[in-house]
Design a protein that fits this description.
alpha+beta; two-stranded antiparallel sheet
Amino acid sequence: RTLLLDAELRRVCADRTSGQLLDLSDRDVRPPPDPTGLRTALLALTTDLQLTDTTWQSQPQHDPTPALREFTALRDRTCDGPTSTRTPAHRCDLDHDQPYPHGPTAAWNLISRSRRTHALKHYGWTPLRTATSTLWTSPTGQLIDVPHHTNPPPGIDPDPTGHPPALPDPHQLADTDAHQLHPPHPDDTPPWPPPDQDPPTTWTYLNGSDTPPF
């Protein structure tokens, strides 16, 4: 609730059972920093739902637009490779399932794959994407099933205190931020001695005794 006053909201559509991303709004919404404006913005995100063409639009060029790349990364989350640690999707290449230009640059034909996984297709590995996993066939005929992520959207938990939902006062939040950025009594004492004061020196004697050699 505290973060909502400074948040940028974006509506996403996900499958209720698997959490698979189905659609992504093309813009962010920054609600006014007051309870009434925030309520209006949240209600606007849950009503008048119109799907975009992100999931079925085909683009003529090889490289996808930033919007399509963002949608694919959020949908895939990680690489679906069979031989390495799951690389986050934002660090992956976008591989055409059906090679370009025979296969279009579209969300249904793109998959996030690390550079290593992307290269496996050139060394005899064959991927087969299904609704729940990617089935890889190695050059020797070994089958490796890599399941897709399934993470259903979380529900809205009730307030454990039993009180009705309440948002913090935006003016109080502004004062708190100002106090953290500009404390009333800053400590200007430097961590080093003043110029007119020599730092203490610790002597170490190396002749095996505790007394100076002179």
